[in-house]
């Protein structure tokens, strides 16, 4: 009888275990929902890497040795074949849960794509991009953070180093790594007098707040492999009204271009292509109006100010949204007209309408028909949709909410498929000048991933 009793107890125990698992899952799911989007009060250190396991291990060791502040490390591997994945698994197990996380991309998707994947994974209030061929030094992160917090309206801060282009390079007297460590320990004495503003920061080491990412979005993945994506991101931060700064009291060692050199002669062609893309994207940027004042930032739409309204935007989960007048409506039904993938941090800045918009109605508004039906659940739903007009220079602009919005350049126009919009009138120079000017339309970053 005792054996039978024990056998009978097994199903009951399994039932209790199943109930426990279900309850644990429910509680975990609810905790995840509540925690999602809530930053962790630390710094997320994001390291893209490709086939340089030895350098990456040195970099990780230097972080562990010289970073007492709260941090997490996120390594994004661009398809390495040198045992990087196995090394990360071993290191992650040794460091404990959450200290080191990684993502294996499967192929070399480029620096910008790897950075973006790491930014999406990051939990920290501050975000730091770091090359795999760097060695950090005593007080490096503390001094960078002090500079970011100490310079009014600072958006991105970078250190000085021994090997880089531009203003961040300094003459360093050491010849060996042990000598570098000893020299850097004295060099990195906190000194706000060595902080200075700059117009350009390179991407080997960049510290920013999460709020900047939420305001301007991710890196542009249109830059192949590497080069110029950091210039692009820095310019977008400046256009949003932020300052760039060099923390002259924070030195890190940089071996320099280790991953890029491994690409060989192909890198010259890649750099030329990226330069052409950068110049085409930002042609005419000098005509943009003054940047947003800091006191206006909380109410600003961020980089969305440079995006047109009356567009279909694709989110990270594949949902297609109709964007107009600072709000978004989920498009209900098949959408066959042009759409643009937009970073979720930017889409989240837009209010969400309670009711979806039928695809047919959104299509009517995309075509700019003056008698288009109003949008559901919109106080100004009866307003006319943005109207495509032919400008005196032959380009297509938009009359949006009574203001004339001109594309910054041909790439901006094609980025938003303005040339595919039905044009119902051509403006003379006098007619164009008579319409109040709205913000210029700039090209959106290319996102090949869902982010």
From TrEMBL:
Keywords: Transferase. The keyword Oxidoreductase does not apply. It holds the Pfam family Glycos_transf_2. One of its GO terms (molecular function) is transferase activity. Residues 44-217 form the Glycosyltransferase 2-like domain. Residues 12-21 have a biased composition (Basic and acidic residues). Residues 1-21 are annotated as: Disordered. This is Glycosyl transferase, group 2 family protein. It comes from Paenibacillus pasadenensis.
């Amino acid at each position: 009888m005792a054996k039978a009793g024990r056998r009978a107890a097994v199903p009951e125990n399994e039932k209790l275990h199943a109930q426990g698992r279900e309850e644990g899952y429910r509680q975990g799911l609810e905790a995840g929902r509540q925690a999602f989007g809530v930053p962790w009060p630390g710094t997320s250190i994001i390291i893209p890497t490709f086939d340089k396991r030895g350098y990456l291990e040195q970099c990780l060791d230097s972080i562990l040795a010289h970073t007492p502040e709260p941090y997490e490390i996120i390594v994004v591997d661009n398809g390495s074949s040198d045992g990087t994945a196995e090394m990360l698994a071993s290191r992650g197990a040794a460091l404990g849960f959450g200290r080191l996380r990684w993502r294996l991309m499967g192929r070399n998707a480029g620096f910008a794509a790897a950075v973006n994947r790491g930014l999406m994974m990051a939990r920290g209030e501050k975000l730091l991009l770091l090359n795999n061929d760097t060695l950090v030094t005593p007080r490096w992160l503390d001094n960078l953070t002090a500079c970011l917090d100490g310079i009014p309206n600072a958006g991105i801060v970078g250190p000085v180093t021994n090997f880089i282009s531009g203003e961040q390079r300094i003459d360093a007297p050491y010849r060996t790594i042990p000598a570098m460590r000893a020299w850097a320990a004295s060099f990195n004495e906190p000194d706000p007098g060595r902080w200075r503003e700059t117009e350009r920061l390179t991407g080997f080491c960049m510290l920013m707040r999460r709020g900047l990412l939420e305001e301007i979005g991710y890196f542009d993945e249109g830059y192949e492999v590497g080069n110029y994506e950091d210039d692009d991101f820095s310019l977008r931060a400046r256009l949003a009204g932020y300052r760039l700064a060099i923390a002259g009291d924070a030195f890190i060692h940089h071996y320099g271009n280790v991953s890029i050199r491994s690409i060989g002669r192909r890198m010259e062609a890649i750099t030329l292509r990226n330069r052409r893309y950068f110049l085409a994207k930002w042609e005419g940027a000098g005509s943009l109006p003054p940047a947003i004042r800091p006191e206006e930032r909380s109410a600003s739409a961020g980089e969305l100010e440079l995006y047109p309204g009356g567009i279909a935007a694709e989110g990270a989960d594949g949902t297609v949204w109709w964007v107009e007048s600072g709000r978004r409506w989920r498009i209900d039904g098949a959408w066959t007209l042009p759409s643009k993938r937009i970073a979720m941090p930017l889409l989240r800045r837009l209010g969400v309408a309670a009711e979806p918009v039928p695809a047919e109605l959104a299509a009517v508004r995309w075509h700019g028909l003056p008698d288009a039906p109003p949008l559901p659940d919109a106080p100004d739903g009866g307003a006319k949709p943005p109207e495509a007009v032919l400008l005196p220079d032959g380009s297509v602009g938009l009359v949006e909410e009574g203001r004339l919005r001109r594309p910054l350049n041909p790439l901006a126009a094609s980025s938003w498929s303005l040339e595919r919009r039905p044009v119902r009138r051509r403006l003379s120079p006098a007619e164009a000048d008579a319409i109040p000017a709205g913000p210029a339309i700039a090209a959106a970053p290319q996102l090949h991933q869902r982010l």
